[in-house]
């Protein structure tokens, strides 16, 4: 079954939860490359949005989200409710990005 809906709230208007599968998650651990760190350092001098790090963060979140959805699909879910992100710096330059939620099966009301 394919996950078609992911939401941060605990219900999907117009749908009924028929089965609660449980917590699913996607975890990605990323480090900055030497080149990325160099260009990021240059951008900090100029100020503003540090696009090298923004791109790295967006890709890590996207990958964690996809892993969460794959885990939900593996267990037969077609939706995820209560989705959240969390990030933890494991060591200097290495960050864990976690995406988690509750996998459910829903049907239209």
TrEMBL record:
Membrane-traversing stretches: none
Pfam families, sorted: YbjQ_1 (PF01906)
Family statement drawn from the similarity comment of this UniProt entry: Belongs to the UPF0145 family.
PANTHER family named in the record: UPF0145 PROTEIN SCO3412, UPF0145 PROTEIN YBJQ
Protein name: UPF0145 protein ZMTM_08050
Organism (species): Methyloradius palustris
Upper lineage: Bacteria, Pseudomonadati, Pseudomonadota, Betaproteobacteria, Nitrosomonadales
């Amino acid at each position: 079954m394919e996950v078609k809906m992911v939401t941060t709230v605990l219900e999907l208007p117009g749908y009924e939860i028929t089965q609660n599968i449980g917590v699913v998650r996607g975890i990605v651990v990323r480090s900055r490359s030497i080149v990325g760190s160099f260009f990021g350092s240059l951008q900090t001098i100029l100020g503003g949005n540090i696009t090298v790090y923004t791109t790295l963060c967006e890709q890590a979140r996207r990958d964690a989200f996809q892993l969460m959805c794959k885990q939900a699909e593996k267990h037969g879910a077609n939706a995820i409710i209560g989705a959240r992100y969390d990030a933890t710096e494991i060591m200097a330059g290495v960050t864990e990005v976690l995406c988690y939620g509750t996998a459910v099966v829903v049907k239209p009301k």
